[in-house]
Design goal:
4 strands; alpha/beta
Length: 93
């Protein structure tokens, strides 16, 4: 049976300026009370998406060491670029 996602399980980040990334990630994760989350990065370019993935991984693992983060990115070409940034708690969907 598939578990229904609540508000703290899904985060959609839309960042217009690269300088905002760290603050937006911290603010978005502050309200998360779930060890397993999905982060939608499909509206970002690959460089910003990679930054967000790394920051999300670090911040979320501090709160939930055994948590999992599923990251949604746009386009298949991004997987080759972002693949090396994947850590033990990240997966691309």
């Amino acid at each position: 049976m598939k578990r229904k996602l609540d508000k703290s399980d899904y985060i959609e980040l839309k960042i217009e300026k690269s300088e905002e990334i760290s603050d937006k990630v911290k603010k978005s994760l502050a309200g998360v009370n779930s060890p397993d989350i999905t982060v939608d990065l499909s509206s970002m370019n690959m460089l910003d998406a990679a930054k967000v993935m790394v920051l999300t991984s670090v911040y979320h693992s501090g709160k939930f060491p055994d948590g999992r983060i599923r990251c949604k990115i746009s386009g298949n070409s991004g997987y080759n670029f972002i693949g090396p940034f994947i850590t033990k708690n990240l997966e691309l969907v």
